[in-house]
Amino acid sequence: MTKANKALSKTYLEQPIPSAALAVFRLAFGLMLCGGVIRFWLRGWIDELYILPKHYFHYYGFEWVQPLGQYTYLLFFICGISALFFALGLFYRLSAVALFISFTYIELLDKTNYLNHYYFVSLVLFLMIWLPANVNLSLDGAMKPTIVRKYIPRWTTGSIRLMLAIVYCYAGLAKLNSDWLVHAMPLKLWLPAKNDLPLVGSLLNYVWVAYAFSWFGAVYDLSIPLLLLNRKTRRYAFVAVVVFHVATAILFPIGMFPYIMILSTLIFFDSKDIDRILMACKKRLNFITVANGKEMYTFAPLQKKALRALFICFFTIQLLLPWRYLLTPGELFWTEEGYRFSWRVMLMEKMGYAQFIVKDSSTGKQIAVNNADFLTPNQEKMMATQPDFLLQFAQILYNYYSQYGMSDPEVYATVYVSLNGRRSTLYTDSSVDLSKEKDSFRHKTWILDFKDKIYGL
After folding, report:
1. CB 261 within 8 Å of CB 248
2. Is 261 a domain residue?
3. In the beta sheet, which residues pair with residue 146?
């Protein structure tokens, strides 16, 4: 990039834009998270997912994140209150940090509960810590008017837009594979299961509908960031976002993801338009300060340099992390080594059956394990198809039977897995003592080869 281009890019990113868009995004995002916490509390999911399980599956490198028992309710309370304060712009910086830490801690407790949109929320919250999202439409501004600013640098909202664009683009690239486009898998399996829906249910039995959904999903993910960025197509793109995600919410049980994506798309709207709406509503929002002037929020020179380095590092990681699967051999959908944190959304139907045998190394006595004695149904389902889960469960069994007098237990697993409608086949080398295998980022050689070929990214 030439000096002229660098200067132009710097000028563009530093251009003042109304702070209204970032403020409205903060309000909507915070209220949505607060509602999500209340939803978890009222449905009893705190107990079910984070207190009642006997064991937890930890992320590699985050084994230090431990369950808190009944204090988990306190953790959720902190998360919910900080989300509300975050939305209102009250003690914003402190509430943003508390929300990021509490929300992320909850998600790190058990990777059984991993969902792409939880990961997305944590990333956005991390970015929001550093952004001046409380200089407009905030209680902080009402208590301390000197912090109110009408304008902020363009890059502040641009960073959230970039994060959303990464999610969509990688989700679209992930769909460019033969199972999704050529065989319409797994939608060919999932859609007929919803044929009891009113009006459209009967259509879901047709194979061509699965192909239409598959191709449209790939085109949608790859094109929607550009359509949202273009002022001429933005409104139509937003309608497409709403229709697409509402349909997804109806057809598939994927929690808050559709609503998170709909609300997050608000950041793409022109901040000038949102500012005009806020100014029109100013009289009704007299309890919260709405910026009305020409003040520009500026970062101190040292702060600006530090944030530039931080954000470059952050987005470099986000751009490279989804490609880490290229460093390990084998079919990604089969091994799932590098699958998480890569925005591969709803790409596979994977079913598994895992039978564990624990053997006393000194006496040769063997015990067939009833997985349900140790795991919840959802944990068992996840464990039966993912190798890092299998390793951790083997360690759980090793520790359990060691405590009950078995001498240096050996743990063997016979695992069968079916991927996207294929016949169930043997997944692991059943002669390998999994209790002696260590988890790492390296390829797990005890995973048997995939018996088919999936072409694509």
Report:
1. no
2. yes
3. none
Calpha distance 175→116 (Å, rounded): 15
Residues 390 and 276 in one domain: no
Same domain assignment for residues 89 and 137: yes
Q: Reduced to 3 states, what is the DSSP secondary structure of residue 138? A: strand
Last residue of a domain, one of 298, 321, 350: 298
Backbone angles phi, psi at 369, to 5 degrees: -90, 135
Among the listed residues 359, 388, 353, the one whose alpha carbon sits nearest the alpha carbon of residue 372: 353
Residue with tokens 């070929």: 453
Domain membership flag for residue 199: no
Cis peptide before 18 (omega within 30 of 0): no
CA distance 35 to 42: 10
Could you tell me the two tokens for 239?
A: 């309608």
Sequence-distant (≥ 6) Cβ neighbours of residue 160 within 8 angstroms: 22, 25, 124, 127, 128, 131, 264, 267
Dihedrals phi, psi of 378, to nearest 5 degrees? -70, -40
User: How many degrees, rounded to 5, is the angle at CA 57 between CA 370 and CA 355?
Assistant: 25
In a domain, 442, yes or no: no
Domain ranges, residue 33: 10-174+230-298
Whether 303 is in a domain gets the answer no
Q: For residue 254, what are its two tokens?
A: 């994927």
283's tokens: 């009289």
DSSP structural state of residue 447: B
Query: Do residue 24 and residue 160 come from a single domain?
Result: yes
- The residue with tokens 């009305």 is 292
Is residue 110 domain-shared with residue 252, that is, in the same domain? Answer: yes
In whole angstroms, what is the distance from residue 200 CA to residue 246 CA? 14
Query: Could you read off the pLDDT tens digit of each residue along the chain, which spans 457 residues?
Result: 555 455 445 588 889 999 999 999 999 999 999 999 999 999 999 999 999 999 999 999 999 999 999 999 999 999 999 999 999 999 999 999 999 999 999 999 999 999 999 999 999 999 999 999 999 989 999 899 899 999 999 999 999 999 999 999 999 999 999 999 999 999 999 999 999 888 888 999 999 999 999 999 999 999 999 999 999 999 999 999 999 999 888 888 777 888 888 989 989 999 888 888 887 776 666 656 677 778 899 999 999 999 999 999 999 999 999 999 999 999 999 999 999 999 998 899 999 999 999 999 888 899 999 999 999 999 999 999 999 999 999 999 999 999 988 888 999 999 999 999 999 999 999 999 999 999 999 999 999 999 999 999 8
On whether both 141 and 86 belong to a single domain, the answer is yes
Distance, CA of 314 to CA of 105 (rounded, Å): 19
Q: What is the tally of structural domains in the chain? A: 2
Q: Could you tell me the pTM of the whole model? A: 0.93
